[in-house]
Each structure stands twice: as structure tokens, then as C-alpha cells.
Amino acid sequence: MPTVVRPEARGDERGALLSYLDAQRGGLRRAVYGLTHEQATSTPTPSVLSVAGLLKHVTVGEQDWITTMSGHPADPRDPATRRRWEDSFALGPDETVPGVLVLSDEVARRTEEIVRALPSLDDTFDQPSAPWDPGGTRSWRWGLLHLIEEAARHAGHADIIREAVDGKGAFQLVFETGAAPEPDWSMLDQ
Fold first, then answer.
1. d(CA 26, CA 115)
2. Helices 51-69 and 13-31 sit at what angle, rounded to 10 degrees?
3. How many CB atoms within 10 Å of residue 104?
4. Phi, psi (rounded to 5 degrees) for 133
5. Nearest-CA neighbor of 173 among 2, 41, 8, 9?
6. What are phi and psi for residue 91, nearest 5 degrees?
7. What's the whole-model pTM score?
8. What is the pLDDT of residues 56-111, one digit of tens each?
9. CA distances (Å), 23 to each of 17, 148, 163, 182, 184, in order?
10. Pairwise CA distance, residues 149 & 157, whole Å
């Protein structure tokens, strides 16, 4: 793991889950660090994905999941819902990396506020059925774990794509952005 996630306060399960989600968001944010718009939106691998597109997709996905979990699911049969999902993989002509970073911050704040206000992570929401999932009742705990899973999966994709763009790996970006200090390996010699 490129960054250390600090232990939660004793008994603060939601704090632990939010910290791990934030750590994965950080990997996506660092993947666009220092890139031009052209670099951030480039697709240098056989995939059609870019680091900016992945950041946008995870942000839009989190926004949609939190809306669903809050009791306002989009209808997966609605063409606008499908278009929103399809369009989430790339920046539109009027979108910028700084704009997506601002949206990412806003979505993260909203997620934290909503999760912190929940009476319990055992509270449930109804997930509509979709072609890939029959849907059903889910706990907020399940929802947060799903958000972590999605962010982590795409942060890994972003690591590979970023390295293809300019050779910078996840650890180098962690150190460059100050997300963690470079390790003092000499402590192992003591």
C-alpha cells in the first residue's frame, strides 16, 4: 500500500472504512498530479482508460452510490442513467482535471457527512436490479466496502496508466506530493 492508513479510534468502524476509502481516492488524485490536460486524458495503454477518466469515474460512481444508499436510486433502465455511467470514463469537452478534483472533494465531504450522521452501518438501502446484479437490500457497511473496492481497483489501473504516461510510479507520487515521507531505510540497520 503506497500510504499508511492510520488506525481508527477504538470502536470507530465507520472512521476506519472512511479512512480506507480516502486512501484509495488519494491514489487516484495523485495519479493526475503534475500532468498536463493532454497527459491526464491520454490513453497510453491498450485500454481506453485515462487517469483523468478513472478519477472522474470513481467520483461519479461514489456520488451515484451515496445517492442510491440515501434512498434515491437512479433507474438503470433510464437511458440518461446509462449515458451518465458511460460518460463517466472520460472527461467531456468542458471538463478539466481541476474541476474533477473539486467535484471529488465535494463528493468525499458529502459521503463523510452522510456516513457520520448514520445511526448505524447496519442501516440498509435498496439497490435496484441491474444487468450485472439482481439488487436487493444492502447494509451501509456493504456499500462502503463496495466503494473502497471500486476505488482501489481503479486506483491500481491509474497507477499503471500513469507509469505509462511519464514513468512515475505510485510510491514516487506519494513522496512528491508529500502524502508520506520517503522511508528511512537505515532504521532497519539498527
1. 19
2. 150
3. 21
4. -155, 130
5. 2
6. -75, 140
7. 0.94
8. 999 999 999 999 999 999 888 899 998 999 999 999 999 999 999 999 999 999 99
9. 10, 9, 19, 17, 22
10. 13
Q: Cα–Cα distance between 82 and 142 in angstroms, integer?
A: 23
Name, in order, each residue with C-beta under 8 angstroms of 21's C-beta and a sequence gap of 6 or more. Answer: 111, 144, 147, 148, 151
Grid cell for residue 18: 472512511
Judge whether 31 and 161 are in contact, CB under 8 Å. Answer: yes
Q: Phi first, then psi: give them for residue 69, nearest 5 degrees.
A: -65, -25
Give the largest CA-CA distance in the chain: 62
DSSP type of residue 133: B
The Cα 161–Cα 138 span in angstroms is 33
> How many residues are recorded in the chain?
190
Cβ atoms of 90 and 47 closer than 8 Å: no
The grid coordinates listed for 105 are 472533494
Do residues 29 and 55 lie in contact, with contact meaning Cβ atoms separated by under 8 Å?
yes
Phi, psi of 137 (to 5 degrees): -80, 135
